[in-house]
Amino acid sequence: MCTDHHKTNNLEDHRALLKVVELHPREKPMTDPYSPKAIWGRELRHYRESAGYTQSQLAALINFAPSLISGIENGHVPAVPEFAEACDEVLNTGGALTRGLDYRKSKTERYPPWFGEWPIIETKSTMLRNFELAVIPGLLQTPAYASALLNGDEEAVAGRLERQQVLSREEPPPPKLRCVVDEGALHRPVGDAKVMQEQLLHITERAVTSALISVQVLPYGVHTGLPGSFWIASLRGGKGEVAYVETALRGLITRTFEDLEHLTDVWESIRTDSLPERDSLDLIRRTAEERWT
After folding, report:
1. How far apart are CA 160 and CA 139, in angstroms?
2. pLDDT tens-digit profile of 197-219?
3. Residue 110: how many CB atoms within 10 A of its CB?
4. pLDDT tops 50 at residue 22
5. Can you tell me the mean pLDDT for 76-99?
6. Which of 127, 131, 130, 128 lies closest to 223, judged by CA?
7. Which Pfam family is one of this chain's hits (predicted)?
């Protein structure tokens, strides 16, 4: 499974049942109120309110972002064991929230355990560096592009859009997003021409209107990023870095010095070989207008 172009095998068995939907960019992602993670979120809200804490107060006590707690309580974001354990300790639940996460052992759950931590890491970051070999970065995808990429899985699309809110939060300040995209991703059809044109123009708009977002294009050719896409997250408070690497089998979250050193070297290499940002945005805009009209 991959952060930005995954589709787990358990969903492939029922693709025929999935309906492609095109969500308006300003619409609030919808979640089934009776999904396991939505029910778990309501349990968290119950224990938090019983203890007399606001979301911000609980966030300060467990060192997680208030926006993350809101997303979990509303059923948009799945919790991970580390989060549940921290809540159990502060809220004196006797371990109820951790036990409640047994639902995640189900094969139908959206994120496997090794990926579920990554959205939390994103919320605790001051900078995110992302190289994408095949598709547009997930945090910059439009709803229509994400829906086409995820075979119309409404829950997965909603989850991806929810992740994007980290870029527009107020407190703590949103992380800087530095993206390098292989040129092939601009030409790979995901959805129809309208979807692709909208997606590429969306990238340029986001990069132009936000000083926190930069996008560069790595031209066609042999480069050090060919083994695959990856993320490097710099954590708040000088707590180091964490990386996510995509493989053909599964995604891998790593904190080891050797892995981070290697990925940083790869990042610097592909960033050096990429077009300057202004030239990159011009290329993306031309591709949208000439290739996808």
Report:
1. 7
2. 999 999 999 999 999 999 999 99
3. 19
4. no
5. 90
6. 131
7. DUF5753
Distance CA 84, CA 81 (A): 5
The values of phi and psi at residue 64, to 5°, are -125, 160
> What pLDDT score was predicted for residue 59?
94
Please give the structure tokens belonging to residue 126.
Answer: 């001051």
Query: Which domains can be identified in the chain, with CATH numbers?
Result: 36-105 (1.10.260.40), 110-292 (3.30.870)
Burial 213-250, CB ≥16 within 10 A → b, else e: bbbbbbeeeebbbeeebbbbbbbeeeeebbbbbbeeee
Chain position carrying tokens 């007399």: 52
Closest CA to 77 of 14, 122, 142: 122
Asked if pLDDT for residue 227 goes beyond 60, the answer is yes
Determine what percent of the chain falls in helix, strand and coil, rounding each to the nearest 5: 50, 15, 35
Of the candidates 5, 284, 280, which has an alpha carbon nearest to the alpha carbon of residue 138? Answer: 5
Question: Of 61-70, 105-114, 157-166, 262-271, where does mean pLDDT reach its minimum?
Answer: 105-114
Q: Which two tokens stand for residue 4?
A: 């930005």
